[in-house]
Amino acid sequence: MKTLLKPFFKTLFLAALSVAPAVWAADPKPATPTSSSAQCPTLLRHTVERLQDEKPQNLCQYAGQVVVVVNTASYCGFTPQYKSLEALYDKYKDKGLVVLGFPSNDFSQEPGNNQKIADFCENTYGVKFPMFSKTTVRGSDASPLFKQLTQATDTAPKWNFYKYLVSRDGKQVKSYNSTTDPMDKAFLAEVEKQLSTRVN
Questions:
Q1: What's the predicted TM-score (pTM) here?
Q2: How many CA atoms lie within 13 A of 157 on its CB side?
Q3: First to last CA, the chain
Q4: 75: buried, middle or exposed (CB in 10 Å: 19+, 13-18, 0-12)?
Q5: Could you give the CA distance from residue 54 to residue 1 in angstroms, rounded to a whole number?
Q6: Which domains does the chain show, CATH number per domain?
Q7: How many CA atoms lie within 13 A of 65 on its CB side?
Q8: Is 101 exposed, middle or buried (CB count within 10 Å of its CB: 0-12, 13-18, 19+)?
Q9: Cβ atoms of residues 126 and 86 within 8 Å
Q10: Is 76 designated active site?
């Protein structure tokens, strides 16, 4: 009996192998996560121009990260904070933090054009964090992003290097005065707190 069953099971096994690949091929592939406006916080649904070449950039590319938004200027007493902002970015970029810089002449301390500003940032402070073209950050002409930041915190930038810290989900925004250095211990503590929070 055993001798008779062996050829039968062997035939059955080979038949199963011949069918299996077709079955596996029919199985649907796991869905690949895609970026969509539904996954991007309202606060980041803006397109702005990159400082270096004025190419449009969708801020949704930073969705899920902790974001520091700062209005900058080349001829301000706080301009050396570029160095601290770069140090902050370098320290936490691999953990999910990004610094977004927006040069502004709202306080009459950023007269240059985009190319001059880009050259200054790179040559003087070695800025590597994303920088965007010259922007109005307060008043009726403020960019949509800064209007939303102002609405979220009830405060518009009061001077250059005013900072907004945005949570990963874009729902929490805190503002910080120009006098707060990006490497200040209290500021870093809040940054680390936000970095430790994951988006569901």
A1: 0.81
A2: 29
A3: 60
A4: middle
A5: 82
A6: 42-195 (3.40.30.10)
A7: 19
A8: buried
A9: yes
A10: yes
Q: 105, 160 in Cβ contact below 8 A?
A: no
Q: Span 49-73, mean pLDDT?
A: 97
Q: Grade residue 72 by pLDDT with cuts at 50, 70 and 90.
A: very high
Using the predicted structure, report yes or no on whether residue 4 has a pLDDT greater than 70: no
The tens digit of pLDDT for each residue in 144-172 reads 999 999 999 999 999 999 999 999 999 99
Q: Which two tokens stand for residue 165?
A: 């810290």
C-alpha span between 11 and 42 (Å, rounded): 61
Number of residues written out for the chain? 200
- What b/e string do you get for 31-45 counting C-beta neighbours within 10 Å, with b at 16 or more? eeeeeeeeebbebbb
Instruction: Check residue 120 and give its pLDDT.
Output: 97
Confidence of residue 37 (pLDDT cuts 50, 70, 90): low
What does DSSP say about strands 66-72 and 97-103: parallel, antiparallel, or unpaired? Answer: parallel
